[in-house]
Amino acid sequence: MFNGTSGSLTSPNYPSNYTSGDTQYYKFFAPKNHRLIITVWDFVTEVGYDWLQIYDGEFANTGTPLLDWSGNKSTLVPKILTTTTNAASLVWYTDFVKTYRGYNLTWVAENYFG
């Protein structure tokens, strides 16, 4: 869980290849009356088998999906995502076959609701 007004997150071992057979869940919380601006700076995974999902809201798989990526998205970054609440959740999944460098993202909290 991450609280605060800014930070960064990368896949394990980034920029070297991530580990196989991994599932990670993260939650991000900005202060009250703020929203999160998430920027994905780099993204390369095994297409169709390793993926990153980012949701608008505290709970993965129930919030609005902001991102559902797999494969090489080098031509689509930076990708800027904006939440409608002060929370976001992230799911990172890798299978047991190929590994690549993964992802690099940052977030900042923006006063929006007050």
Automatic annotation (TrEMBL):
Keywords for this protein? Disulfide bond, Repeat
Q: Does the keyword Isomerase apply?
A: no
CDD domains, sorted = CUB
> Can the keyword Disulfide bond be found in this entry's annotation?
yes
Give a Pfam family name: CUB
Query: Domain CUB: where?
Result: 1-110
Source organism, top-level taxon: Eukaryota
Q: What is this protein called?
A: CUB domain-containing protein
